[in-house]
Please model this.
Amino acid sequence: MNFELNQDQQMLKDAARGFLSKECPSTFVRKMAEDEKGCTPEFWNKMAELGWLGLLIPERYGGFDGRFLDLAVLLSEMGYACMPGPFFSTAVVGGITLLEAGSEDQKKAILPAVAQGKQMLTLAWVEKDGTYLPKGVTLRAELKGDRYILSGTKLFVPDAHTADTLICVGRTGESQENEEWGLSLFLVDRKCPGIKLHQLNTIGGDKQFEISFEKVNIPQENLLGEVNKGWSTLKGVLQKAAVAKCAEADGGAKRVIEFVVPHTKERVQFGKPIGTFQAVQHHCANILTLLETSKFLTYQAAWRISQGLDYEKEASMCKAWVSDAYSRLVALAHQVMGGVAFMEEHDLHLYFNRAKATELAFGDSRYHRELVAQKLGL
Amino acid sequence: MEFDFTKEEERLIAEIRSFMKQEVTPEVQAETLKSVGICGGPEGRKFIKKFGAKGWLAANYPPAYGGLGASEMIAYLIRDEMAYAGAPHNLVGAYMAGPTILRIGSEEMKKQFLPPIARGEVEFALGYTEPQAGSDIVALNLRAEQKGDFFILNGQKTFNTHCHVAEYHWLGVRTDFDVPKHKGMSLLIVDLQSPGITIRPMITMGNWRVNEVFYDDVKVPIKNLVAEKNRGFYYLMEALDFERMIPPGYFRRFYEKLIDYIKETTIDGRPLSKESWVRQKVANLANELEIAKLLYFNLAYMLDKKKIPNYQSAMEKLFVSELSQHIANTGMEILGLYGQLKKDSKWAPLDGLIEHLYRWTVVETIYAGTSEIMRNIIAQRGLGLPRG
Model:
């Protein structure tokens, strides 16, 4: 067993920390929450130049050939900076979905552009029921001749307005015996007629959308993977995206502790720094425990994915735990920091709000605990 | 990063598990369960000697002192397997006194005690706590006056767990009354057969025995002083970091029995394992056990890298002790009315295991350092918060 990063990973981490502390201070985070796009072309291009957008993409498609654990290290730094923008939708979710389900032609057509920063992606999955389960997908995808016609509504789609390509989960079939059968994935040009976007206003300040598809007409070749068997791809995407979210939470938690600890030493009440009071010490101990326990599960899951080992149980254990833990630790941080961090001006609320979004994305604690129960054979 | 064991480690686990299957009889498990995982009786002793003969008891000691010179990772693995098998695993000699003697004891002391510890021939009892000295261990007062080649001991210990099954007392004593309290403590090894020692049982609500021990003019040879006189506080603090780590395997056993129970027990024709609330709670226990495993082996990893796990051992102890209570509480919730039934009662599920677990896990967040002290340590040593 070895719980430390190797030299390359440490270098990536340090480089990311350096870049983001310069290019993504909290002023940028706040500005992007107000900004319509949520990111700037300059920032995006800089990430492309650093190779981050192609981190998981194999070299033959113009990527960096990195592994999931490397991505986790990078995401942790992004979480530390509370970085906004469509990196996750494009490089993580979109990239992984394409790598898993794409044909050689589809990968060749899209992945190099993603790595260069010229194409953005997002996955449109969840619908009105607010679940990632297969039965939640009702958007119809009907084959008419050599075209698919898509009709339905998607919700909570991140960064739909900046995505060039929407990866849309549609229903092409139904089976009483097998709930998981009948879903298909489609590459949809966002500018297709019949697509209407409506922005949702969210706690995380991220750009989530309702998308209505009204008889959106796409070529048959835009089917991604095998028809009706889309769930086999989505299952893996969900788990990997979930672990990736936990990696963001890892960095965010570290930043939160960096707010809290100096405060306990500087804030004086009753003639003493409040860090001398046991109640405050215990809150801080709980914060550190939540952070460390989360860290171990996250990197274990990320490592297993990297190594090509079975990872589903560990991934769900991780998301089930971290979803709760991250939100709880930021709440504890608020409790310790009192009035000062309740102010909008202080950055802690950025992490508090982001923690809730992180908790909910790609399955919350309850969703993943049920998956764990299934993996335990119950 | 690496989250799996090596091939050699896997091989060792397999070897130990097959040994355990043969040697850890129901009698050994019953003795272990009746106590707090200590080597509580003749069957346990027999087992420990067999185990020690394999070199596994003190695997990380140098071969010169009876060990295998193995890594801490191996030693931690072995201990967790012992706990998982329901064998005695709460051993003061092998895991607390022994490592301290190894680190700071004289050559003579090492040669005298380490080989018998490694062979499972002798056990030690921790002798820190006194009526007025629990979390505030520097308040301990058992007096050790130096008179020629002996210390003369007078005073009292309480809640000393292993005294009734141990050969030696690993005793925290006061050797200097004229200095600040933490500068006047020493560690002594005392033969529990010495004249003047009276051991009286104290029965806990978990039904196991601990002891109060009275010292009346007990003579202890000077050579039984561990390292330097009056430095005992520092040795004790370091020894506590070793005591603290709890092998989560013991609780994994109980969790697995609970899993079997929910799979086999039906209500209204449906197994309990299909109830959503049961699945949620049990999945959370599984998550916590997974965390506990990683926190535990991280300590071994740090020790092998010669790093000192100060707040990490407190965190591990805190987490696993609370996990043990979660298992007991979840078990009780699942069992409903049946949870009340004690072992040997008609209808008692799992042989009254959960009922017993529920009562004895009360102490898990109290002994070897209360959760409050653990949180203080995590905050102070882990985050640098000021001491009060």
The two ends of chain A are 29 Å apart (CA to CA). The first helix of chain A runs from residue 7 to 23. Chain A touches chain B through 43 residues (CB under 8 Å). The mean pLDDT of chain A is 97.
